[in-house]
């Protein structure tokens, strides 16, 4: 009977936002495993007692990056971690988009502004500012050139807190075709979803946002699959990934571009794709064996 930790965050006093967690715990238990949900920052957790620790919903890690990195190293030294620690460490900093672009992966054009660097913002098109370490559209907002002063204050706040900023053009195709999320498990496409635009005009960067509006089942196109597979193949070291989510949007030419490659704690959307639960359960059990 394998012992498996599904690693999550401590939501208290609110209920957990991970709708997939109880589904997976039940499915793994029915399959004969001893599965538990464990907070990543639980000082009393004995990680060496598990055959596998699967990072599932550590959704507060981006605000505690140094602490999370320390936990990664500690946990990986005591048990098998999925995804592998070197992958997670690389993927927690979205400057990986620049590295993937250099290998030829079609990505959303991105500039990076670290604290202390000169501020240069677009003057001829709408754009997005967000941190290189973030999740759920935290600290993200879209701006027109006329909102330059507001955008500068956004950057100043991020830099004051030590964040490096990403500046990307706002691709209008998001408002038409939305954002597509292709979910892979054990190296194969599991399912795909589409959601609407997250960033509405005028929404402050520090406002709460709906991370996955109007989510629906999606059938990926051959072009989307090709970009997703190129992105996964370009991950340094060609690691053995248990899970991956590839988020795509249409570029100005209508072709898919990589928005984000999520290898840390992607929402699986199993509530939308209940037929995927057996495959996820089987893959986790295989990784634990």
Question: Can you describe this structure?
Answer:
The protein is an alpha+beta fold and 289 residues long. 27% of the residues lie in helices and 24% in strands. The protein contains 8 helices and 13 strands. It has helices at residues 21-30, 65-76, 85-91, 96-102, 148-160, 173-177, 222-233, 277-288; strands at residues 3-8, 34-39, 52-57, 80-82, 111-113, 127-131, 141-143, 165-169, 179-185, 188-195, 216-217, 243-250, 256-262. A 5-stranded antiparallel sheet has the order 11-10-9-12-13. It starts with a strand and ends with a helix.
Notable traits:
13 strands, four-stranded parallel sheet, five-stranded antiparallel sheet, alpha+beta, 8 helices, globular, 289 residues, 24% strand
Strand and helix map with partners:
Layout: E1 3-8, H1 21-30, E2 34-39, E3 52-57, H2 65-76, E4 80-82, H3 85-91, H4 96-102, E5 111-113, E6 127-131, E7 141-143, H5 148-160, E8 165-169, H6 173-177, E9 179-185, E10 188-195, E11 216-217, H7 222-233, E12 243-250, E13 256-262, H8 277-288
Parallel strand pairs: 1-2, 1-3, 3-4
Antiparallel strand pairs: 5-8, 6-7, 6-8, 9-10, 9-12, 10-11, 12-13
Helix pairs in contact: 1-8
């Amino acid at each position: 009977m394998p012992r498996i930790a599904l690693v999550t965050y401590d939501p208290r006093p609110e209920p957990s936002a991970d709708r997939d967690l109880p589904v997976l715990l039940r499915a793994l238990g029915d399959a004969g495993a001893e599965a538990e949900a464990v907070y990543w920052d639980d000082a009393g957790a004995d990680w060496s007692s598990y055959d596998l620790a699967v990072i599932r919903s550590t959704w507060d890690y981006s605000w505690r990056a140094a602490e999370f990195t320390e936990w990664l190293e500690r946990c990986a030294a005591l048990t098998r971690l999925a995804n592998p620690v070197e992958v997670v460490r690389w993927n927690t900093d979205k400057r990986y988009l620049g590295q993937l672009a250099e290998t030829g992966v079609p990505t959303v054009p991105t500039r990076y502004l670290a604290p202390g660097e000169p501020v240069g913002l677009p003057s001829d098109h709408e754009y997005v500012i967000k941190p290189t370490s973030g999740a759920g559209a935290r600290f993200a907002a879209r701006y027109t050139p006329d909102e330059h002063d507001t955008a500068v204050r956004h950057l100043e706040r991020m830099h004051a807190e030590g964040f490096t900023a990403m500046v990307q053009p706002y691709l209008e195709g998001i408002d038409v075709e939305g954002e597509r999320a292709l979910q892979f498990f054990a190296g194969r496409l599991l399912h795909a979803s589409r959601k609407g635009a997250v960033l509405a005009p005028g929404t402050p960067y520090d406002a709460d946002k709906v991370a996955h509006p109007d989510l629906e089942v999606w059938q990926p196109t051959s072009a989307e699959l090709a970009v997703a597979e190129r992105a996964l193949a370009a991950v340094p070291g060609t690691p053995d990934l248990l899970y991956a989510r590839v988020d795509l949007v249409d570029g100005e030419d209508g072709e898919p571009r990589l928005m984000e490659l999520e290898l840390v704690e992607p929402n699986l959307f199993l509530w939308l794709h209940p037929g995927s639960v057996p495959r996820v359960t089987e893959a986790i059990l295989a990784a634990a064996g």
